[in-house]
Amino acid sequence: MADQEQQQQLPEAPFPAPPPFWKHFTVANEDRLKQIEATEGSSPAKLPLPLAYLRPPPAPPASAEYYTTFGQKQVIDPTKPSSLPREQLLFNPDDPNLNHAVLLSRLTKSLLLNFLELTSILSLDPTKHVEKMEDIRQLVLNIHVVINMYRPHQARESVKEMLEEVLVNGQKEIDECDRLKERVDGFLRSVGELKTAHATDGQLPADGSPAPQATDNAKLEEQRKLWKLIHETTD
Q1: How far is it, in rounded angstroms, from Cα 2 to Cα 53?
Q2: Which residues make Cβ contacts (< 8 Å) with residue 215, sequence separation at least 6?
Q3: Where in the sequence is the domain holding 50, given as residue range(s)?
Q4: Total count of domains within the chain
Q5: What's the rounded Cα separation, in Å, for the pair 87 and 110?
Q6: Residue 207 lies inside a defined structural domain of this protein
Q7: Is residue 112 pLDDT above 80, yes or no?
Q8: Is pLDDT larger for residue 11 or for residue 94?
Q9: Any domain includes 162
Q10: What pTM did the predictor assign?
Q11: Where are the beta strands (DSSP E) in the chain?
């Protein structure tokens, strides 16, 4: 019953109205469905039509090549040769020497040429457009098939770009760590040289008693140089 109502509402307009069963998705119907499932089990034998729409359809089997949506068949995996409409293909998808880039370029050029021919036909005799429109549809189908055959290649290239970006970012982090390590090593060497210079300049006089003023000045000078090194390192 649900399938019959759905088939009667096939989308024919460019912007068709939504299927009529959307009206059945209400809170009250959801509560009724929960009550029925609680009393009769998770899979009741028969449900009223408004409640049947609330149950999702079963998934297609693994061997299925098509699934149905809004009464129309859709291909599950367009890249599989068994799912391609071979009677409308202009090339052999199983050819090992098939060049997808060249084929796609030829198909797009043919599509442009057929469109120009269609404009000529429409200007001379619009009643003869049917055959040319079929040619254009066939070309569009072939272009769509070639693009779908590119999906695995596109996925590999996307993963490759992501991995390359990870490597580049990792190398940048390593270079930054090396640069910071060099700055820290240079800072430590400068501090060591500063300590050595201060020890040399701060030798005791002959009587062995250091001058307090000289010692304080030396410490201040050491601290100034140390702060200067810190600022130069952190800038």
Answers
A1: 8
A2: 202
A3: 2-61
A4: 3
A5: 19
A6: no
A7: yes
A8: 94
A9: no
A10: 0.43
A11: 66-69, 72-75
What's the mean pLDDT when you consider all of the chain?
Answer: 77
Whose CA is closest to 107, among 140, 147, 148?
Answer: 140
Residue that is written with structure tokens 């409409």 in the block: 85
Position 74 in a domain: no
CA distances from 21 to 84, 88, 114, 186 (A): 32, 35, 41, 75
Residue pLDDT, tens place only, 77-98:
665 655 566 777 888 877 888 8
Domain membership of residue 188 (yes or no) is yes
Task: Give the burial class of 24: count Cβ atoms within 10 A of its Cβ; 0-12 exposed, 13-18 middle, 19 or more buried.
Answer: middle
d(C-alpha 219, C-alpha 222), whole Å:
5
**Residue 177 and residue 119 share a domain:** no
pLDDT tens, residue by residue, 13-30: 667 677 788 888 899 988
Let me know whether 178 and 137 are in one domain.
no
Per-residue pLDDT tens over the stretch 26-56:
999 888 888 888 887 656 667 888 888 888 8
How many C-beta neighbours within 10 Å does residue 213 have? 8
Q: Which residue has the higher pLDDT, 51 or 197?
A: 51
**What are phi and psi for residue 206, nearest 5 degrees?**
-65, -35
Phi, psi of 75 (to 5 degrees): -75, 130
- In the chain, count H helices and then E strands: 7, 2
